[in-house]
Structure formats: C-alpha cells, structure tokens
Specification:
Number of domains: 2
Number of strands: 2
Strand order of the largest sheet: 1-2
Order of helices and strands: HHHHHHHHHHHHHHEHHEHHHHHHHHHHHH
Structural class: mainly alpha
Strand content: under 5%
Helix content: over 70%
C-alpha cells in the first residue's frame, strides 16, 4: 500500500516563528555581551542566557515534531549531543571550582543547543538564510562598535586615565583592572567581545559566509554584503590580533579550496595555500628565534610556549580524565614558569581540552564532531537556498527578545547609548542579506565550512572555546552545514518519518533544562545586581576614607556589607562574594566576620591561592600568628612564584616572636626579590616601596 503523507500540524505556523525568535534572541544575548565578563562578574546573566538557548532548542524540537520532515534523522546527532553533555557535566562537577565548573558545562551545552537549533530550523531555505544573516549582522555591528572604540572611545579614555582616572575601574579586582587598562592603552578594537583576539576570531568565522552573500546577491544587496565584508576586514585590522589575521587567512584559503566553481583548480590552490602557510611559518619562526622577548611575533610565541609547557605538565598529572572544566586557570599558578605571564587559558584549544577533560574527553568530543561532520557531508543538500520573507517577523521578535535579555542580564560592558541603534542595525543588515537571489547550496556549505576552519585555526593560538560568543558562532555555523535538509540520492527510497516519540522526548528534555536554568538564574540575577550595588558602595566608602570622611566611609561600608549579605544569600557558592565582603568587614574592623568569610572562600575553592593569602592577613590582624603563617604557606603552595605573596609571608615571619620563624624571613624576602626579577609581567613585579621593604628584611 502507498504510504500516506502526514499533514503538518496547524500549530506549526505558530511554533516555527517562536523558535526562530527565541534563537535570534539567544544568539544576540551571547554575541552582544562580554562573555568573559559575565563568567567572572555576573554569573546570573550567563545562566539566564543559557536558559534562552535551551528554550530555543525546545521550540525547535517541537517544530520538528510537528513538521515530521522525512529527511531528518535525529537519532545519532541527539545521541552524540547527550554523550557530550554527560561528559561536560561530569567534568564540571570534578572542577577545582565546582561553581564555575557547572556553569561552564551548562554554558557549553547551551552553545551546542543553539547549534542544534540552527540545524533543525535551517531545514528550510529562507530560515537558513535568515539565521546566517543574523549571525553575520551581529558580528558586523560588533565590528562597528570596535571601530568606534578604536577611533573615538579609547583615545578619550586614555586622556581620562591620564587626567583623573576612571573611578568605575575600582569595582573590579586588580588583575581585571590592569587588563582593562592595557586594553584601553593598546587601542585595539574589541566591540562587545571584551578582547581584540575574540573579535578577530568572530570576523574570521563569519567572513567567508559574508563573501557567499556578496557573490550571490545583486544590485544594492550585493553592495550591502560587500560593505559588510569591508567593515569586517577593517575591524580585523583594528584588533591588531596576529592570530586572528592568520585565522582569517586560513578561512579564506579553505573557502578557495571548497568553492565549487574552482573545483578544477584545487590542486593548484592547495599547493598555493601550502606554500603560503609554509612561508608564514618560516617568517614567524625566524622572528621568534631572532627576538624572543621583543614585543610582536617573538614575544607572542614565547608566552604561548610557556603557557603550553605549563599545560603539558598539568595534563601529564591527569592524562585520562583531566582536572575538570576551567581547571587550567585554577592550576596555572602552581605550574607557572618564573618568567611567564598571567593567564586564565592555555591559548591553545587542544592543550586546554587535554588539561580539563583529559584524553578520553578529547576523544569523545572529537568523535561527536566527526559524527556531525559525517552526517552533514553524507548527503548533499538541495540545489539552492531560496529566499523568503516568512521569517522576517520572527527575526524582529527575536530582536526584542535579545534586547530584553541584555537589559535584564547584560553585564555593564555590554550596554551603551548605542545599544538601540545596534539592534536596529542588526535587523536592517540581516534583512538586506537574507532576502535576494537564491544561493547555491554548495557555495553556502563552502562558506560555512571555511568559517569553521577559521575557528580551528584561531584555536591553535587563542581560547575561543572559553568565550561564549565565539563558541556559539562556530557551533551555529556547524548547524548551518545542513541548511535546506538533505536530498535523496538517485534511486534511493524515501526515508520514513522520524518517530514521534523522539522529537517529543528531545523537546521535553530541552524544556526541562530550560526551566531549570530559568528558575536557577533568578536568584543568581538578584545576586549579580546586589554585588554590583555592593561594589559601588564599597568603592564609595574607600573614596570617603581616602578623603578623611570617616563617618561617611563607615556608612557606605555598612551599606555595602548589607548588599553583599543579600548577594551571598541569593548565591551562596560564588567565592568572590565572600572575599569582597571580607574586605568590607576588615575595613569596618570586624575581623572575626572577615576571617569567617575568607575561611568559607577557602572551603569553596581550596585550590585558589588568593583567598589563602587574604585569610593570612585577616588572621594576622586578629593576632592569630600561627594560623596566619599557615595560611600564607598555603597560598605559596598554590602559587609559589608570586612576589607579593612571598613578601607578605616574609613580613609576617619578620614580625614573629619565635626566633626560628623570624630567621626564615630573609629567605622569603630573597625569594620575593628573585621572583619579581624573573617575571616579565609588570603587574607582578614588586613596587619600589615593596623592594625596599624586602631589602630591609635581608639587611636585618
């Protein structure tokens, strides 16, 4: 009997636009906010944005369940996604900082959810074009923001820093303050991506797809696409990122090799790309050998080799299962070379993954990626991706979703006066790119695959895996590899419909995770808000104290403490909340409370060195010398080459009444001076006053 073609559900015209709108909102939330800033300072926003991604996946699965496309086979891709999710959650639980570990696991799963959603929604040509256009437009508007910073904002901030300073910087830790100052003085475009190399990586990923639109469009739409490509190149150059420029060149080379009309030239193109790559390697190697410590290629390679050497040592200590997600930043101080700079990432995706998930985890992730690539390449999509205005309203709705998400959870660095204009620009640019002439499917796939190659090339020297916007971008490109569905081979029978229970199960699981993230994000968002208020009050109290207004200082500090109380009540596992409240308590003279907070911080993340050192200071002020010395020693076990920690330990021993302990002060002072001399990072060197104090201990 002939099979009866099932009729689409009447709910489908409602569910599909909702899925597209939620997807657009989730992508904008990730690409228009500083992912690293959220990870460090506003974790509630991170979880909230993850909830949007899972909502998008849930609606996409419902759309597939209702549409019942015969071309779609969900079994293997979903099985691979579940295996990867289990791996990430297990590694997150094993992380040295469990709170950061589980948030990282959820964030990576959310990025994969957006990629899978893109694969499900892009079964139709118009939706695929709109999704790709939104991604390009978001990066392009971020590039506009970066160019504005390069030519206008950073020069003004430099003048402000040299004149009276920027009070808002006091809201952050010293290392983060220094990073922001270096970013300002470097005058390199960053946009909403926090760091120049992340913006450069995003440009390298979307540029080939922008070229696809430019080649395929006509008249003014082609002009718009060409303008986007020019804008992306200008922003890339303004980032001054050497690795990003190499990644962009790699993506262009891959596009040339994959471009269907140049198929007959592939042997020559491959030889040319290989020759160029060998030339770049020879020049880079020559510059490295000639001037390893000179700012530029030599120093860039030197510091990365030091990071990789430390990462290799970490991996050999746990080669099979790794140390847990985001473990590199926690373990790095203990493995850091004396001259090496500070870092939170290995600047190499393979090294970072080996450290954090081990060889077994890397093999699982590689198998999942290979399975996805095999399924994407096994069946060629239809001849072309046609245009259509159907998703237009859904994209407009997605812009509103993204705006509300950023206003509700965006960290301070993501919001500006240009914010509404940015969203309008994204919508207009996406419309200009998405509608127009049909795009040949092979050309589309070449652009998408070349963007993925750009990410892989960038990952050899950077850390896009740990920047939410970059990770989302590459996984969305992976999802778009199957845009338009899959055509049947000649003589192949039509596949059966996917079982209804599979789509329903996938939608149900994604819905449960989305609801868990939504409810879990609520207290974290409250904690984010309370911490921002507390930090502002803390800074205000410090300013009053510096000006001699002791009464106003105490009042501001008491209010800051109350705000920290609220933040810790809402998010009791965020270690920095305890450290910051302890600082306020010390300023107020409540040393027992400060000691209790720092002991809790040490309990939450025992491997972190800074809480131990801060606990040593609080205990020393409390008169508990023995425990203070033990805390200083614990800090040095975790960060043996920190000059300031060594000086703190030396001064604590010099003040001891125990002659044996007192006699060891000179050794610690000598180590502090040696560590300060060895490090090339100015932030870690002892100041002139600190050097004088260390030398005085040696003379005594």
């Amino acid at each position: 009997m002939p099979t009866v073609e099932s009729q689409p559900s009447p709910l489908l015209p409602w569910v599909r636009p909702l899925a597209v709108a939620m997807w657009v909102g989730a992508v904008l939330a990730r690409t228009q906010s500083t992912g690293a800033g959220q990870e460090l300072h506003t974790p509630g926003a991170q979880v909230f944005f993850d909830a949007l991604a899972f909502c998008a996946l849930s609606l996409s699965c419902v759309e597939v369940w209702l549409a019942k496309p015969r071309w779609l086979r969900l079994g293997l891709p979903l099985g691979a996604c579940v295996a990867v999710a289990i791996l990430l959650l297990a590694e997150g639980a094993a992380a040295p900082d469990p709170d950061l570990g589980w948030r990282t696991a959820v964030s990576w799963c959310a990025a994969a959810a957006l990629g899978l959603s893109a694969a499900l929604l892009s079964a139709h040509g118009p939706e695929a074009r709109w999704l790709g256009a939104v991604l390009i437009a978001s990066v392009a508007l971020g590039a506009c923001s970066g160019l504005y910073q390069y030519f206008v904002e950073f020069p003004e901030l430099q003048r402000q820093l040299e004149a009276e300073g920027i009070p808002e910087l006091a809201l952050y830790e010293a290392d983060f303050q220094q990073g922001l100052k270096e970013r300002i003085y470097a005058t390199a475009a960053t946009g909403p991506w926090l760091l120049p190399n992340m913006l450069a990586a995003a440009v390298a990923m979307v540029f080939p797809l922008g070229v696809v639109f430019a080649i395929s469009q006509r008249r003014w739409r082609r002009g718009a696409a060409v303008g986007v490509c020019v804008l992306l190149v200008a922003a890339l150059l303004a980032t001054k990122s050497k690795g990003g420029i190499l990644a962009w060149a790699a993506s262009l080379g891959a596009f040339a090799l994959l471009y269907p009309r140049w198929r007959h030239l592939r042997p020559r193109l491959l030889a040319g790309v290989g020759a160029i790559g060998a030339g770049v390697a020879l020049v880079g190697g020559g510059l490295f050998l000639r001037a390893r410590e000179t700012h530029g290629v030599g120093l860039s390679l030197t510091v990365r080799l030091e990071y990789w050497q430390s990462g290799w040592a970490m991996w050999t200590d746990a080669p099979w299962l790794g140390h847990g997600l985001n473990a590199f930043r926690a373990l790095y101080p203990a493995y850091k070379l004396p001259s090496a700079e500070e870092t939170k990432h290995a600047h190499n995706g393979v090294v970072q993954l080996l450290v954090e998930v081990g060889l077994i985890g890397v093999l699982i992730l590689a198998a999942g990626a290979a399975l996805w690539a095999w399924r994407a390449a096994r069946r060629a999509p239809p001849g072309e991706l046609t245009q259509g205005s159907g998703p237009r309203g859904a994209v407009v709705g997605g812009l509103f979703v993204g705006a509300l998400a950023l206003l509700a959870g965006g960290d301070a660095l993501s919001l500006s006066l240009e914010f509404p204009l940015t969203l309008l620009g994204i919508g207009a640019l996406a419309w200009a790119l998405a509608e127009g002439e049909a795009i040949p499917a092979e050309r589309w796939r070449a652009g998408v695959a070349a963007g993925i190659v750009g990410f892989l090339a960038d990952s050899l020297t950077n850390f896009g895996l740990h920047q939410a916007g970059c990770l989302v971008t590459v996984l969305v490109l992976a999802g778009l590899t199957r845009a338009g569905g899959a055509a049947l081979e000649e003589g192949e029978p039509a596949p059966s419909e996917p079982p209804a229970w599979l789509g329903a199960t996938a939608a149900g699981l994604a819905s449960v995770v989305a609801l868990a993230c939504v409810f879990g994000a609520q207290p974290l968002l409250l904690a984010d808000s309370a911490r921002e208020e507390a930090r502002a009050l803390h800074m205000q109290g410090a300013e009053h104290a510096a000006a001699g207004r002791s009464t106003l200082a105490r009042e501001s500090l008491r209010e800051a403490r109350e705000a920290y109380d609220a933040a810790i009540e809402a998010d009791p596992d965020f270690v920095d909340g305890y450290r910051e409240r302890a600082s306020v308590c010390r300023a107020l003279g409540d040393l027992p409370a400060a000691v209790a907070d720092l002991e809790r911080a040490v309990e939450l993340v025992p491997i972190a060195a800074a809480p131990h050192n801060e606990l040593g200071h609080a205990l020393l002020e409390s008169g508990d010398e023995a425990r203070a010395l033990a805390a200083f020693d614990a800090a040095l076990e975790r960060y043996p080459g920190h000059p300031q920690f060594l000086l703190d330990a030396a001064e604590a021993r010099a003040a001891s009444r125990d002659p044996v302990v007192n006699a060891s002060a000179a050794d610690y002072a000598q180590r502090a001076l040696a560590a300060s001399e060895a490090t090339r990072l100015q932030l870690r060197k002892l100041t002139a006053n600190q050097r004088a104090r260390a030398e005085a201990l040696l003379e005594e």
